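INTERNAL AUDIT FORM
Audit reference: QA-55
Scope: verify that the stored structure record matches its stored sequence.
Auditor: D.O.
Record contents follow.
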Amino acid sequence: MTGGLSFSLENARRMVYSGAIMKKKLFATLLIVSAIAVMPVSASWAAQKETFGSKVKSFWKNLISYPGRVLEESASVVAGVVKNTASVVSNTTKRVGEVTTGDLAKTKELVTEPITGTAQTVVAAGEGTIKVPSQALKDKQQEATQPAETEKQ
């Protein structure tokens, strides 16, 4: 057989063998490419799972610390009320002293200042009491976002 086209058994084996090698190389290449493609997806999935875990941890931490924050805010409101009450009492005492020493022009203030001071104290106490749960919740939300910001840095 002459002419360049010879179909011998040896050539047939070489063609089959080289095709098998080519298929193995193609399969290995596809396997590597798919592994590289899956890596970012698995990393993203792991990050989401970690985020879920941190959310659960944050939830329980906030749930336990919320009553303490409410207590802190309540104490702040009570301190404000005590301060306002002390101010009203001291102003009233001062006016009583002024009126009893002969300054009768202060009589009107002796009557009106305790009433307005008490009303302002009651309003401040009511507003503070209403805001206590929301202030405690805001503090909780700020603390929850701060660790996430520090993790990003």
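Auditor finding: record pair retrieved intact. The chain has two helices and no strands.
Action required: none
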